[in-house]
Design brief:
Layout lengths: L6 E4 L2 E4 L10 H4 L4 E8 L2 E2 L2 H14 L8 H16 L8 E8 L19 E8 L2 H10 L1 E9 L16 H11 L6 E5 L12 E6 L9 E4 L9 H13 L3 E3 L12 E6 L3 E8 L2 E2 L4 H15 L3 H7 L2
Parallel strand pairs: 7-8, 7-13, 10-11
Antiparallel strand pairs: 1-2, 1-6, 3-4, 3-5, 5-6, 9-10, 9-12, 12-13, 13-14
Length: about 300
């Protein structure tokens, strides 16, 4: 796909994506004050887009970014942007859609009138082709997770359930774990040493069920400490329909055993197994992988793992 042919949507207007930019005095750049959300297409059709937009608007409100567009207006603009940019894709490719909002320009930063929040917010959307080559090793072989010395921000400071771009801690955490393993992904602990999430995914621990289906349960970090993932909601729905206990809990790294299986889940790749946590090799759970894949596939009418593995 040629990026110069893509469109973006900025403050109500479709423009060439190559021309989309924040000004030097936008609060999203100056203060890192940006709320964001990301959804994807399956077979060129948006999935759970309304839920993403609802979450996005709720997070904007929580961050005092007063966007004026209604849910319906955002939905129509997002659908049109996906439809138009998907025309540039091959049949087996799909898009990620990114929504973002900032408080807008800070006038005095460029010698103009007004301060932070005095003007109109900056509201935008853009797309990119999903990088299936990046997800392929995770789906095929599993993800290597290492906990970082960098901690998840306290809920008393920034609500971790809000999807936003003040992500310097993630940048440092990822660089730090890469000094220990070039293939690892950072998993953050909270201030009490409990597991939280990665920069792009929620964590699930499958207890007592790596080999058989009978007595398993799913553990996941408490909802107030991690992002309210749309993909996580899908797994929760699967667990409910399958009769698998779903337990939100404080989980210490030492409580994850080699007999356990684990998964990370995200909109981009849906879910992938965890190969190891802090060097401990975890079990694979083929029955869980197959059942969850089948459940998800019914919702999106596409085998997304096959899509990832076949796109080189």
């Amino acid at each position: 796909m040629d990026n110069y042919s893509n469109l973006a949507w900025i403050n109500g207007n479709f423009i060439p994506q190559a021309e989309a930019a924040l000004t030097l005095h936008d609060a999203g750049f100056v203060m890192g004050a940006t709320v964001t959300d990301m959804s994807r297409s399956f077979a060129h059709k948006p999935f759970m887009l309304r839920e993403h937009i609802q979450r996005f608007k709720a997070h904007c409100k929580a961050c005092f970014i007063d966007i004026k567009k209604t849910e319906l207006e955002l939905l129509k603009a997002a659908e049109e942007l996906i439809e138009r940019n998907c025309l540039l894709l091959k049949p087996a490719e799909d898009l990620a859609l990114v929504l973002f909002a900032t408080p807008g320009p800070i006038g005095f930063y460029l010698g103009e009138s007004g301060g932070a929040g005095d003007g109109l917010p900056t509201l935008g959307m853009h797309t990119f082709k999903l990088p299936f080559h990046r997800y392929r090793p995770w789906v095929e072989h599993g993800v290597e997770l290492l906990t970082s010395s960098i901690l998840q921000p306290s809920p008393l400071s920034i609500n971790p359930s809000i999807k936003q771009r003040s992500r310097m801690h993630w940048w440092i955490a990822e660089r730090e774990v890469k000094t220990r393993s070039s293939t690892a992904t950072a998993l953050l602990l909270d201030e009490n040493g409990f597991l939280t999430e990665t920069a792009s995914s929620n964590l699930l621990i499958l207890k007592d069920g790596a080999k058989t289906e009978g007595s398993c349960k799913i553990l996941t970090p408490k909802s107030g400490k991690v992002l309210d993932g749309i993909a996580l909601r899908m797994v929760k729905s699967f667990a409910k329909d399958s009769g698998i206990p779903w337990i939100e809990s404080d989980i210490l790294p030492s409580e994850v055993k080699s007999s356990d299986a684990a998964f990370i889940t995200s909109n981009s790749f849906c879910f992938a197994p965890v190969k190891s946590l802090n060097g401990i090799q975890l079990s694979r759970s083929d029955w869980f992988n197959e059942k969850l894949l089948g459940y998800w596939q019914k919702q999106v009418t596409l085998n997304f793992h096959e899509q990832i593995l076949k796109n080189l």
